[in-house]
Amino acid sequence: MRTLRILLSITFLTLFAAAQKPANTTAASDKTDTKATVYVYRYKQFAGSALTPSVYCDEMELAKMENGRYFTVRIDPGKHVFHSNDKQAGVDLDLKAGQQYFIRLEIAAGFMKGHGRLILVAPEQGSYEMRSSKLKPLDGNKVVDASLVSVEEARLLTDSK
Question: For the chain, what is the HEC assignment?
Answer without folding.
Answer: CHHHHHHHHHHHHHHHHHHHHHHHHHHHHHHCCCCEEEEEEECCCCCCCCCCCEEEECCEEEEECCCCEEEEEEECCEEEEEECCCCCCEEEEEECCCCEEEEEEEEECCCCCCEEEEEEECHHHHHHHHCCCCCEECCHHHECCCCCEECCCCCCCCCCC
